[in-house]
Amino acid sequence: MSDETLPEHRSGFACFVGRPNVGKSTLTNALVGSKVAITSDKPQTTRTAIRGIVHRPDAQLILVDTPGLHRPRTLLGERLNDLVRTTWAEVDVVAVCFPCDEKIGPGDRYLVTELAKVRRKPKIAVATKTDLAGPERITEHLLAIAELGRETGTEWAEIVPVSATSGEQVGLLADLLVGMLPEGPQLYPDGELTDAPEEQVAAELIREAALDGVRDELPHSIAVVVEEMGLREGRPEDKPLLDIHANLYVERSSQKGIVIGHKGARLREVGTVARKQIEAILGTPVYLDLHVKIAKDWQRDPRQLRKLGF
Ligand SMILES: Nc1nc2c(ncn2[C@@H]2O[C@H](COP(=O)(O)OP(=O)(O)OP(=O)(O)O)[C@@H](O)[C@H]2O)c(=O)[nH]1
C-alpha cells in the first residue's frame, strides 16, 4: 500500500504581529471562528501567547498571538520584546498587520526593521480593516506597505487586504498561510480551539473585564493571577461548579480604589462580567472569588514579574 495518492496534509504555526490595536486578535478569532484570544478596544491587551487552532481537512494552522513590539522602557517591555522575537524564530510564517484606516508610521518601520533581521522566514503583510477604507485609500495603503518592504529589505511573500469583521478575504488569508506550512500531520486533536491553559484564559478574561472603562486611569497597570481553579467537590455530576480564586494586581493604592469602586460596586461588576465570559467559554457554571492586591511597581521588579508569569 502506498499513500502517495493521498492529498498532502500541512501543519504548523503562524503569528500575527503589528502595532497595538491593528486587529491581530480579531483576525485570530475570525480565522478560528470562536472567541479564543481576547479582543478589546484598549491597546496591549494581549500579553501572553494565546493560540487558536484552525482545523481543515487539508491542514492544521496554529495561530500564536503575541504582544506588540515596543521600544522598551521598562523591564516588562524588554521581556515582552524577547517573547515576541522568540515567537518569530519559532513559527513557520509571520503575518504583519497594517490597518487600512491608519498611515504607516515609525512604529511599523521599527517593527518591520526588527522582523527583517529574522532571515529565511516567510513574511506576509496583511492590510487589515478594509471595511473602514475606500478603494483608493486601500490601493495607496498597499503601495505604502510594498514600499516599506523595499526600505527595510523585507521580501513580502504576499500582501493581502482583509476585513476580520466583515470576513472579506479571511478565507484567502487562511489559504495563503496554510500554503506556507510544511507538510505534516495534525498536531492537535479535532475540536481543540486553544491550548492556552484554562487558568490563562480565565486570567485574560478577568483582566479584560477589569480594564473595561478605565482605559485612561489604568492603561497597563493590571495583572491577573489565577491562584486556584478546580471543580468543587461533592457536586452532582450534572451540576458541576468551577471554583476560581484570582488576584488582580495593581501598582498603587490609588489604582486599587479605582478597580474596587464605590463600596466595591465596580469590582462586583468586573466579577460578574468576567464570570459570565468564563462560563461561556469553559461551559461550566463558575464561582469567581476575586481579590485586588497591590504589587508595588510590578512592571519594574524582576521578582514580581516572575511571580506574575512574565
Ligand atoms: N472595522 C473593523 N474593526 C476592526 C477589524 N479588526 C479589528 N477591529 C477593531 O479594532 C480594535 C482592535 O482590535 P484587536 O483585534 O483587539 O487588535 P490587536 O491588534 O489584537 O490589539 P492588541 O491586543 O492591543 O495588540 C477593536 O476595537 C476591533 O473591534 C476590522 O476588520 N474592521
TrEMBL record:
Residues 10-183 form the Era-type G domain. Residues 65-68 are annotated as: G3. Keywords: Cell membrane, Cytoplasm, GTP-binding, Membrane, Nucleotide-binding, Ribosome biogenesis, RNA-binding, rRNA-binding. Residues 128-131 are annotated as: G4. Residues 18-25 are annotated as: G1. It is a peripheral membrane protein. Residues 214-296 form the KH type-2 domain. It comes from the Bacteria. Residues 44-48 are annotated as: G2. GTP binds at residues 18-25, 65-69, 128-131. InterPro entries: G_ERA_dom, GTP-bd, GTPase_Era-like, KH_dom-like_a/b, KH_dom_type_2, KH_sf_prok-type, P-loop_NTPase, Small_GTP-bd. It is found in: Cytoplasm; Cell membrane. Residues 162-164 are annotated as: G5. Monomer. Belongs to the TRAFAC class TrmE-Era-EngA-EngB-Septin-like GTPase superfamily. Era GTPase family. An essential GTPase that binds both GDP and GTP, with rapid nucleotide exchange. Plays a role in 16S rRNA processing and 30S ribosomal subunit biogenesis and possibly also in cell cycle regulation and energy metabolism. This is GTPase Era. It comes from Nocardioides taihuensis.
